[in-house]
Design the sequence.
């Protein structure tokens, strides 16, 4: 049991460090949010003077930097433990928790499903390519790798230009058709259909650009596993190729990929900044960009916190799984 | 609504996740229904998720429809013309002789969109409420239902466009109960404009015709404002007929107008400049504090190349007087000041520097007292036209022996040094005055009262160049205190002579603002011949004036 206890202690300490760092990082960034907001306001106002009252109000909105660093740190933890992530300044006066709650489902479903599809596709095809090494199937490796190395936003733009603009098959932007649903999301098959249609191109972009990694890794592991003694033994025993491929080779070859998959799942919540930007997709990645650009401390901390927690949770989960499937981890960890 | 007969099929297929079949049925171009039965779709620049905020006091974060479509000022001042303002809620206004009292007459029988009467009491309330309370305001009183008297402690001749043209009139029966006006999101806005809120989502919101609007319901019954995160998407949506109105930069407008549905108009208004931290007395440091260096840069840069290369040939020629020409032509003191030099003149730049005691070093750059002129020029990362212009300026200045290093910075690194005066040169955009009188430009950007020492933010105004010139200050005061045109013209002539010589802002180009609109399904858009309002969906008031002018094409 001490293996799990050690792991959990490790995660608690990591969590504390991550949250503290999260507190510190925005404060180390240059620039004063109040000045940025006033500057933008003046431009937005077309030269109209800003009353002192307005300036005071802005300073009080963004004036979270009162008291010593330590007082701020204590107050930060206090608010955090109550689930209060503060109020966004770029989206004033929307609460950060609400913004994240609205964006999270879109990101988790789209990026999550795309990541799972990409993983499964990579593993299955990778195993097959590894099994049939030396045949024409090997060409799949460089092809998928090319997709992976193409700049992500460019791939997305090409897909939009071809499939949406020229062929008119897919929508250009959004998480659903807001022309047909001006009142927003609703629980109907029509809406789900719309959301699925809108997810196809963004998901394709993610899958195309990430499947190569899984495929290559799986193929190589498969090749090295196939030269292992137990595979040779299995062949000598006269087992069916299918049984050797799935039960003996692929199963063991997939273990390293599984660890990577755990980490990739953790990062699902970080969203996919570029994809969300290109498709105006209502996810988390965009909140992150906006918060950093607008020096929106509260939003920045909220988003980073959610990401940190999920990455750690995913790692913890993988540790637990590993403890079960690989006894060596339990003893050496 | 758009009829979509295939929707149920699409849904069933989608539920089965049969992607290909779905792709073929799920999304079809939106041109199925006639224009009169569908909303006008606008992108005014909002990114997703759109803020659910209709509070007119949250200038930076409230949604676009708040300004003009829902809340209105008393009068509309058309930036593009020198005609008198158009009455919205107001019918007429009159200044007292000394300019301290403005008497406004409202149109009769006005109503809010909830059916309550809109009276002078609401207007008086608005001027005394929240950030509207100006320091100079003595009182705002409703004399009767349609007359409001605003009294000030100082003459307000030059403030008409701000007081009457951009103070959003709010209903007393709603806002009278709101104390914390900055924290209010006002999700059910009660305004007087042509439209009222129908539905709101993070991705788009819809406004619908206001049946209580004084001129009757507008002809276009619904307008949908959409959130889009990249210019490319909006361009694609325009090209495929899914958007009707956009104001954005498109380097190659033919790609959008090629379908014959969308028309475009390119207006050149706001000058792009190099701001320089100009005053050594106020704490600026660096070679740019020497007027000779600024003058040399002014003649060394090749504005025609910058216009062509950085601004895709869409920008206009800037004037060193920072007036909007031809609108403000009547105030031009000297015809040679109409445009800044458009070609570079390295010889003239050398002459200016040598006369000021600079000499060219072995590295090819000018220096004085052993100090080479080395300047830092920054622009916000991603503002590609500014970034490219800065690069060109750096190259052109180098040819004239002035070393300027161009770099890009994040938004955060951009605003903070500018407002604190901790910079040498930066690319910047000035706003042209809203009315055919450059007064606000001069008082806002050039007056000593609009600046502050380096290290401090200007309390009022945007004189970030730290320009402080008693001659200019006196002329601005003189221009603000009179309605006499000759006196004003003299004052502006003085200002022109000073700022053209001192160049605290080095004009570069006149920024383009392109608008794209669907002239096939909707008629009544402003045109080159009839610029009754700027056809830019993000411009306060003008956007609503345009919307109220439109009607669906039959």
Sequence:
């Amino acid at each position: 049991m001490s293996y799990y206890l050690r792991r959990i202690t490790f995660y608690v300490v990591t969590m504390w460090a991550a949250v503290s760092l999260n507190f510190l990082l925005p404060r180390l960034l240059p620039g004063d949010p109040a000045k940025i907001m006033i500057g933008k306001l003046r431009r937005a106002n077309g030269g109209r003077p800003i009353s002192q009252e307005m300036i005071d109000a802005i300073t009080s909105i963004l004036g979270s930097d009162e008291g010593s660093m330590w007082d701020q740190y204590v107050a930060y933890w206090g608010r955090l433990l109550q689930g209060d992530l503060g109020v966004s300044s770029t989206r004033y006066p929307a609460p950060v928790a609400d913004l994240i709650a609205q964006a999270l489902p879109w990101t988790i479903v789209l990026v999550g499903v795309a990541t799972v599809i990409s993983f499964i596709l990579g593993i299955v095809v990778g195993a097959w390519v590894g099994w049939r090494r030396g045949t024409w199937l090997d060409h799949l490796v460089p092809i998928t790798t090319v997709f992976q190395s193409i700049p992500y936003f460019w791939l997305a733009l090409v897909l939009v230009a071809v499939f949406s603009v020229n062929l008119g098959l897919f929508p250009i932007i959004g998480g659903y058709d807001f022309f047909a649903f001006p009142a927003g999301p609703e629980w109907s098959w029509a809406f789900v259909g719309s959301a699925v249609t809108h997810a196809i191109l963004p998901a394709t972009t993610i899958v195309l650009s990430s499947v190569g990694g899984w495929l290559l890794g799986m193929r190589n592991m498969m090749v090295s596993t196939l030269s292992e003694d137990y595979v040779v033994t299995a062949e000598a025993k006269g087992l069916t190729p299918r049984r050797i491929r799935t039960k003996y080779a692929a199963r063991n070859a997939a273990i390293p990929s599984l660890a990577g998959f755990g980490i990739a799942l953790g990062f699902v919540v970080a969203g996919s900044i570029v994809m969300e930007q290109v498709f105006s997709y209502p996810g988390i990645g965009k909140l992150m960009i906006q918060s950093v650009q607008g020096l929106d401390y509260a939003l920045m901390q909220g988003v980073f916190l959610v990401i940190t927690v999920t990455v750690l949770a995913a790692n913890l989960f993988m540790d637990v799984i590993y403890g079960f499937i690989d006894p060596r981890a339990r003893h050496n960890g | 609504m758009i009829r979509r007969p295939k929707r149920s099929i699409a849904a069933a297929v989608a539920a089965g996740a049969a992607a290909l079949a779905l792709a073929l049925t799920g999304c079809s171009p939106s041109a199925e229904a006639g224009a009169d039965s569908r909303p006008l779709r606008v992108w005014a620049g909002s990114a997703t998720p759109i803020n659910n905020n209709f509070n007119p006091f949250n200038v930076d974060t409230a949604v676009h429809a708040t300004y003009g479509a829902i809340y209105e000022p008393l009068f509309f001042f058309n930036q593009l013309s020198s005609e008198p303002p158009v009455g919205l809620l107001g019918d007429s206004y009159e200044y007292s002789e000394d300019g301290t009292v403005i008497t406004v007459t409202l149109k009769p029988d006005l109503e809010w969109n909830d059916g309550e009467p809109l009276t002078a009491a609401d207007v008086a309330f608005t001027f005394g409420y929240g950030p509207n309370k100006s320091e100079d305001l003595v009182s705002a009183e409703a004399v009767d239902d349609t007359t409001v008297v605003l009294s000030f402690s100082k003459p307000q001749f030059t403030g008409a466009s701000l007081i009457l043209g951009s103070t959003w009139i709010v209903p007393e029966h709603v806002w009278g109960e709101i104390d914390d006006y900055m924290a209010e999101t006002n999700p059910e806005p009660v305004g007087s404009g042509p439209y009222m809120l129908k539905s709101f989502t993070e991705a788009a919101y819809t406004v619908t015709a206001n049946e209580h609007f004084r001129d009757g319901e507008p002809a276009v019954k619904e307008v949908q404002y959409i959130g889009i995160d990249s210019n490319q998407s909006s361009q694609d949506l325009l090209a495929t007929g899914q958007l009707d109105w956009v104001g954005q930069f498109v380097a190659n407008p033919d790609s959008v107008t090629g379908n014959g549905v969308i028309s475009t108009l390119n207006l050149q208004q706001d000058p792009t400049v190099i701001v320089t931290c100009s005053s050594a007395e106020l704490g600026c440091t660096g070679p740019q504090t020497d007027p000779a260096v600024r003058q040399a840069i002014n003649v060394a840069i090749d504005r025609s190349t910058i216009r062509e290369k950085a601004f895709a040939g869409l920008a206009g020629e800037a004037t060193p007087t920072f007036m909007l020409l031809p609108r403000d032509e009547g105030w031009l003191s000297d015809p040679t000041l109409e445009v800044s030099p458009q070609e570079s003149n390295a010889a003239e730049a050398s002459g200016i520097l040598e006369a000021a005691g600079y000499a060219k070093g072995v590295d090819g750059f000018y220096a004085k007292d052993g100090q080479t002129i080395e300047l830092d020029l920054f622009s916000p990362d991603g503002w590609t036209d500014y970034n490219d212009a800065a690069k060109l300026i750096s190259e052109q200045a180098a040819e004239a022996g002035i070393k300027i290093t161009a770099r890009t910075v994040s938004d955060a690194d951009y605003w903070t040094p500018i407002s604190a005066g901790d910079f040498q040169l930066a690319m910047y955009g000035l706003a042209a005055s809203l009315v055919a009188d450059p007064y606000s430009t001069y008082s806002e950007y050039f007056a000593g009262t609009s600046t502050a020492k380096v290290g401090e933010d200007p309390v009022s105004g945007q004189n970030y160049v730290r320009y402080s010139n008693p001659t200019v200050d006196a002329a601005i005061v003189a221009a603000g205190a009179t309605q006499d045109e000759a006196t004003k013209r003299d004052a502006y002539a003085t200002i022109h002579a000073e700022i053209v010589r001192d160049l605290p802002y080095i004009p570069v180009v006149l920024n383009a603002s392109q608008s794209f609109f669907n002239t096939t399904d909707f008629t009544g858009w402003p045109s080159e011949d009839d610029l009754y309002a700027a056809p830019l969906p993000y411009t306060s008031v003008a956007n609503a004036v345009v919307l109220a002018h439109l009607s669906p094409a039959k």
